[in-house]
Amino acid sequence: MNKLSTAAAASLLFCLMFIALYHLFKLWSAEQQLRSKLAYRANKGWRKKLTEGFRRYSWLHDHLNELLETLRLKITPATFACVSGLLLLAGIASGGLFFQSVKGTLLFGALLGFFPYTILRALLVHRRMQTQMDFLPAVELFYQCYLVTGERHVRVALQRTVEERRLLGPMQLVFEQLYRNLSVRGDDEASLRLLSVSLGHLWADYFVHILRVALVEGAPIADSLKELLTDMRKARRAGEQERNRLLEIRVANFTPILFLALFVGINLRYNKDNSYYYYIVDPMGRDMLLNAMVLIFASFLMGLWLSRKKM
After folding, report:
1. What is each CA distance from 207 to 135, 203, 210, 275, 276, in whole angstroms?
2. In this structure, what are the phi and psi dihedrals at residue 256, rounded to the nearest 5 degrees?
3. Which of 92, 194, 227, 298 is a good FRET partner for 100, with 20 to 30 A between their CA atoms?
4. Which residues does 270 contact at the CB level (< 8 Å), separation at least 6?
């Protein structure tokens, strides 16, 4: 194992021991921790300093915070960055131990380090695909509620839309999040941006633009909503074709994993000794497995990128 892997393994071990000792001490001194919440010492812990230090990278912090809030995950950006960093160290350490090369060390570390972020992007694409078919009925319901409330207050129309609980599937949670953010957050632009990121298609951007005009300028938007609904109904058939293409892309993302498992499984089934030697012991076999993992990861990222472009 090279020096880089040794340093990564030592750093990972130190971080894990530090986290374990911290939580043991926290359990032991629970009463003291409750008391310190009312004192100035509560803001001087290492977690507070770590969060403040991570906030200096505003672009990364804001991006992760927006992504986590869109997915409604109760994880802070600092915690997510720490988990990714620990996985990066674990990948460097295990990559150096198994592949015993600089290429294997760095590539396997990068694969594990970026794995949590890739999972978040995959979850976001999955949520967007779930909401695509239900977006048109949701806008129709909002349009009806907007007309009933007198075409004056967007927040009142959103409240009525949410309270009627007639939205289909995940759209109920999306509109609840929008109404909650507009009522509590105090930043209408950030709330609308979260809606646009949650839905992730062109019609959602048009809908967000209409809401922005109503919230900022106070202008009536009934005609704009009616025109949007008309255009969406005309484009519904084309949208079904796009969803079929997205399904094909998602199926294609998992075919390399299936073929790799199939070929490796067949070799292990008929010749275990030689397969173990050529896949695990032989450096060329380990390099082949590394290249396969890198290509599969790259194809998965390309599938996510194509899914984003198709929406």
Report:
1. 10, 6, 5, 56, 57
2. -60, -40
3. 298
4. none
CA atoms of 55 and 187, how far apart (whole Å):
19
269-309 tens-digit pLDDT: 888 877 777 777 788 888 888 888 888 888 778 777 766 65
- Per-residue H/E/C for 287-305: HHHHHHHHHHHHHHHHHHH
Q: Which of 78, 107, 79, 86 is nearest to 95 (CA)?
A: 107
Distance CA 165, CA 172 (A): 7
**CB < 8 Å & 24+ apart, contacts of 178-184:** 179/155, 182/155, 182/158, 182/215, 183/155
pLDDT (mean) for 236-262: 66
Q: At what angle do helices 202-217 and 102-148 cross, to 10 degrees?
A: 50
- What pLDDT was estimated at residue 246? 60
pLDDT over 90 percentage in the chain: 9
Q: What is the DSSP letter of 153?
A: -
Is a pLDDT exceeding 60 seen at residue 144? Answer: yes
Quick one: DSSP state of residue 279? I
Q: Regarding predicted confidence, which is higher, 274 or 53?
A: 274
Alpha helix (H) residue ranges in the chain: 3-28, 30-36, 46-54, 58-70, 77-98, 102-148, 154-164, 171-180, 188-199, 202-217, 222-234, 236-270, 272-276, 283-310
